[in-house]
Each structure stands twice: as C-alpha cells, then as structure tokens.
Amino acid sequence: MKGWFGKYLYIDLSSKSFKYVDIPGDVLVDYIGGRGLAARLLWDLNPVGVNPLSPENHLILAVGPLTGFPLPSSGKMVLASKSPITGGYGDGNIGTRAAVELRKMGVDAVVIKGKATTPTVLHLDCGNVIFKDGRDYWGLTTVDTEEKLKKELGKDVAVLSIGPAGEKLVKYATVISEFGRSAGRPGIGAVMGSKNLKAIAIHGCSEPEPADRSELLRLGAEAYRKVKESPGYEFWCRQGTMATIEWSQKNSCLPTYNFSEGVFEDWEGIDGYIMESMKVRVKACPNCNMPCGNVVKYVTSTDSGEAELDYENVAMLGSNIGLAPLNKVAHINYLADIYGIDTISLGNVIGYAMELSEKGILSEKIEWGDYSKVKELTRQIAYREGIGDLLAEGVAAVSRKLGGDALKYAVHVKGLEVSAYDCHAAPGMALAYATSPIGAHHKDAWMIALEVRVGRFDYTKEKVERVIWLQNIRGGMFESLTTCRLPWVEVSLDLEYYPKLLTAATGYTYNWDKIYETANRIYTLIRAFWVREYAAAGLKWSYQQDLPPAKWFTQPLSKGPLKGSKLDADGYMRMLRWYYELRGWDEDGVPRRSTLERLGLSYTIPVLEKLGVKLS
Ligand code: PTT
Ligand code: SF4
To answer: Which of 93, 201, 210, 581 has an alpha carbon 20 to 30 Å from 565's alpha carbon atom?
Structure first.
C-alpha cells in the first residue's frame, strides 16, 4: 500500500507493552487518516461509555497520507480522544516536527491506552518504544520538559508534552510542542495526565513512499510557487492570523467582555500592527513556506519574555477579558503555553468569572482587565488552587455548579468554550459552532467570513449548505490529509491541488465526490459516537445539544455598528432543521438508519440500538 503504512502502533502504559496492528486497506481509503482514522479507531477501540480520564480511554495520535511530504504545510497531526470536558469526541490539530517524525515511525497512528504506575515519558525511536522514567519531569513546565528531553535524548527528537495543567487534570489542558504550538482544546492534555504520561519524544527513520513520486513532487513544487505568488502572501507573512483582530473589530465580531459585545475600545492596543512592532522572529510548522508563528518580545512593569501570538489567543485573552495592551496579553499567552492550558477556554473561563463577579453571582472580586488578577487566576487554574479548582472544570461545569442566573452568561456548546467570533449577528457562524464535531470551535466552518460578505441577518438554506461544505472541506478533508488548511484559506491556493495530491500519494483516485462522501462519513461517525456516549451515560441526545449559547439570543449588543443585534430563535431553528435534513440526520440530530447504511457505517447500528437509541 502506497502513501499509507497500513498499521498503527498500540501502546499499553499499564503493562508497558506495545504491538503493531494492521489497518485494513478499505478503512484507510474510506477514512483517509488524521481525524477520520482517529474517529474510526476510537469507535472501534474505546469501551462504550468509558470515563475519559480512566486508563481504558484511548489517546490517538494520527497523521495522514500527505503528512511530511514536500508539499505546502504538510507538518500537521491530529490528537484525539474521548474528551473529559464534553464527554464526546474531542481532537486538536498541531503543527510540529512530531507529525513528521511520527510518520517516520512507519505508522499511520499511535494509539495509547492504560495508565503508567509512575510518571512516564514515551520515547518512540525508529520503531522501538522505550518507557522512560518520567519522575524527574513531572511538575515541569512544557518549555522545561521539552528542553530537558532534547538535552537527554538529542535534538533530533520531536516532543509533545503536558504542563502542570495536564498533570492536574484541568479539563481544558492541551498538549504543547516547540514552545508555543498547542493542540487538543477538549482536554487532550488532561487525558495524557490521567495516564501519568508526561511527554512523548519521537524520532523516526522510515520514509513513506508515495504511489507516484514524480507527480507528487511536481504538484508540491507548483503549489509552493503559487503560495508565494499570491497577492496576499507578503501581508500574511507580516501579520499571520493577527490581522484578524482589526477585521473582527471592524465587523463587530471581536469577542469582548465574555461575548457580550463585538467591539473593544482598546483594540488598537492588541492588533496586528502592534504585534509587528514587537515581533522578533517568525516560526513555521514543517514544510511550510508561509510562516505565521509570530514570536514577540514583551515587557510589562513586572514581566518580560517571548510568546508566539495568534488571533484566537489575543482575542480571548485580550478583548474577551478586557485586557490590553498586547504586552500583557502576550505574558498570559506565555503562561498558558508553559502550563499547557488552552488559551481559548482560559479566556472564556476568566471572562465568565469576571462577568459573574460584576453581577454579584461570584463573591470573589475579579475585575475586567485586571492584569495581576488574571495572572493569579491562570496559575490557580493550572495548579487547581483556591477558586482555580472550580474554574479548571470549565464554563459549563461552573455554570451547573452555581446554577440560577449563572447559566445565562455561560458561553459554550456541548461543554466546550466558544472560540473567538462573537455571533450576535452571525447565525451561520453560530450554526457552525453549534454543530462542530468537538463542541464550539471555528476550525470546521469559518462561516463568519462569508456572512460578512453576503449578509449578517439572513437565516437562509444557502448558509446552511455553506456550513456543511466548509465542514466537509476543512473538518473532513484537511483534518484527515493531514495538512494545514491556511494555504487555501489565507493565500487562496487552489483547492484542486488536494484531490490530486491525495491521488498521487496513495494511488487511489480521490475525486470530489469521493472526498465529500468521506467527509460525510466522518461527520456522521463522530455524531454517532456522541450519541453512543450520551446513551451510555443515560442521556438522550436531542437538538438542544446543537444550540449556540443562550446569551446571543437574549442579550443584544449594546454598542458598535451592529448595536441592538441578537440572534433570532425561530430563524436559527429553521437553519438547524435544514442542517439535519442535508446531513441525513433526524429532527434531534441523530443519524438516520439509511444514512448510516449509505455511508458504510452499518457497524454502528447494533451498538446504538443496544443502548436504546431509536434510529428512524
Ligand atoms: C486550535 C486553537 C487555536 S486555532 C489557537 S490560535 W488559531 C489557539 N492556540 C493556542 C496556543 O498557541 N497556546 C495555547 N496554550 N492554547 C492555544 N489554544 C488555541 O488552539 C495553529 C494554526 C492556527 S492558529 C490555526 S487557526 C489553524 N488551525 C488549523 C487546524 O485546526 N487544522 C488544520 N488542518 N490546519 C490548521 N492550521 C492553522 O494552525 P486545536 P498549531 Mg492548534 C500558542 O490545536 O486544539 O485544534 O485548537 O495547532 O500548531 O498551534 O497551529 O488563530
Ligand atoms: Fe503552520 Fe502557519 Fe504554516 Fe499553517 S501557515 S503550516 S499554521 S506556519
């Protein structure tokens, strides 16, 4: 089999054993890799209803048939597991040399189960697995862990590690690599922590073999050239995702004061131009020729250092908590990276605590933009000290615990905090958040960009079709290839390259029909996984799980050009029903039997039925 290796590495931390397992060819063709393969492996291997923080939950590291090949931005990988913050499917995508090294281990995925008796570092070395004593590493930050491991194992190893937050099972702890790349918003870092797994150090030596090397190289070289020739290339390399601060402010969707507003009075203090004035260097993921990892040097009256900034980090730790200017935001970003906490959820949780404090629901005084308090809270969350222990559970859990009015201000979907686009005037983006397969995240469908062009207040079927198309391309295709989607999104690299590259890599003909069908399969399988896990927990799946936060329906924007805007509940429900119809799911969002059969997911039917799920 070309393009893929056709096997995964299965590691059991409890018994300190490992084996290689073949993956049937049709599974690879039908799920491609990355997210698709991870979703299939989780369905097959995870015991139904497993506690996400128990040894029986599986952690999956998956690459795809394009990972590591010389083509634009191919140094990405997916980390997936049953999520401790949502109880459903969770994953994240990370750009790091670990992706390339993992592929060179001669596998398409690594699957980890069990729990080590003492803190452990997994050293994956050219096909061999070494269970290294990790006690000297436990308690270290992600930066110190990576530095120490490279000193010990050599700089050829690529490292994925957790910080104190993962060790303390903070529900939105992530996995960090290369001092500022992060993945696994739905608590994948906590899953590692629950397994006593501090880090994974990888060095591989097998080279993947494409089916048609010369065609792959030709297409890759041409695509690299097109990226560089793009009119947007130079500005992208200057600001990267940070240009979005100005764009969001101008379009009134910059999350501000816990998603109460779409504009922030101090936005110029945190925008891409300020970032440029602080920039000291730029980092890139492997095989990328449009680097966007903007590293800045910051100095405040109490702190100084370097941090890698992205739009999401700055919006959530800036405007959403009323914090400016950028040097302060950069330091909080740095703390999140070294502790291994997701910046998006952190900005939500702190913003939520600030709003609850303002409304008198929390007795603790936590004021908007209070830099020292934000630093203290970030540390308390990472180490679960004081109020940090409650906040470490995430917005949904805090709102359930406090009850009453606290529920009105909680901004999340399915338990995952919302990323950085306010949706008071963006029903399509609200639908994208509400139907994202991991809980609220923008990675699957960045609908707001289209809504800004076609109209913010329409609840149309065209928007629903576009949400599904974007989900299938971004969350289905790119997450499974696995390559960065930004060459397409940001510098308009022609999408047509991807089916051609996939065909050249695998020798299997991937046309658009095949890619859409595969993406539909992946989305429906992930939905079946959620329904299965809810049923196993005694909960009935309903359309209520696909609703955006109540706040956007009930509390209109009070300022900015879209003052007075809020979502319309009837319009939203119309869109949700169209969404279900187009996906072939019933009125509660459960896949129909005929849809499961058509997509080759019949194997899910007896499992769901045994749990009492009624399939229409
Ligand atoms: C992603 C989410 C994002 S999305 C950002 S910034 W973004 C935040 N980054 C964090 C960080 O940094 N530190 C931290 N402690 N927490 C963080 N949480 C947030 O995590 C990222 C880039 C970006 S920057 C984006 S949009 C694109 N995302 C891609 C994707 O999802 N898939 C894909 N095929 N290509 C992508 N390309 C872009 O990659 P999660 P990265 Mg990240 C400091 O992981 O869990 O998916 O959440 O991967 O290597 O950092 O690259 O404005
Ligand atoms: Fe990484 Fe940015 Fe390049 Fe994508 S565009 S591969 S996120 S450096």
So the answer is: 581
Q: What is the 3-state secondary structure (H, E, C) of 158-216?
A: EEEECCHHHHCCCCCECEEECCCEEECCCCHHHHHHHCCEEEEEEECCCCCCCCCHHHH
Residue 53 tokens read as 């923080």
SS3 8: strand
Does CATH number 3.60.9.10 belong to domain 7-203? yes
Reduced to 3 states, what is the DSSP secondary structure of residue 595?
Answer: helix
Ligand 1 within 6 A of 311 CB?
A: yes
| Residue 252, ligand 1, Cβ within 6 A | no
Q: Is 416 in the pocket of ligand 2 (CB under 6 A)?
A: no
How far is the C-alpha of 219 from the C-alpha of 237, rounded, in Å? 23
Cα-to-centroid distance, 353 and ligand 2 (Å): 33
> Residue 75 burial (CB < 10 Å; 0-12/13-18/19+)?
buried
Q: Which fold has domain 231-420?
A: 1.10.569
pLDDT digit string, tens, across residues 504-524:
999 999 999 999 999 999 999
* Residues 382, 163 contacting (CB under 8 angstroms): yes
CB-CB contact of 557 with 565 (8 Å): yes
Residue 291 alpha carbon, nearest atom of ligand 2:
8
Answer yes or no: pTM beyond 0.85: yes
CB 196, CB 120: distance < 8 Å:
yes
Fold topology of 424-492+511-616: 1.10.599
Q: What whole-number distance in Å separates Cα of residue 522 and Cα of residue 502?
A: 17
181 Cβ closer than 6 Å to some ligand 1 atom: yes
What digits encode the pLDDT tens for the residues 134-172? 999 999 999 999 999 999 999 999 999 999 999 999 999
